[in-house]
Amino acid sequence: MIRIVADTNVVVSACIGRGPASKVIEACLDGRCKPYLSGPLLMEYRDVFSRDAPFKNARLSLAERWDLLEAFVARCEWGIAHFTWRPNLRDEADNHLIELAIAVNAHILVTSNTRDFAHAELRFPHLKIELPEETAKRLLR
Does domain 2-140 bear CATH number 2.40.160.10? Predict the structure, then answer.
């Protein structure tokens, strides 16, 4: 089974439209892949979901978004990063994603911001950093 870490922007995009991010989250919900979650990532999800601005034109209502998040989190396996791999990324706020992905031996870190990860100081050859489009294609094979 493909093990993934989904960046917050992927879960938010799934609430806004019906595109590739929705396909990735759907694959997590129906068991085609295994998503992983950590305390910092859950807090980030909750923080962004509590804002109105990212969801101004969302297809899902506030209640539906929280229901989706709850269902997604219920499908996640808990992971704990025991090591910090820093300095690594230019944006300090993204380092926890890499650390979780390494800790749970994830195959893919799905993000809409792959450029934020392109200049990492540390490389982890077994971990793919992919756009939702790439991951959705992989999961639909």
Answer: no
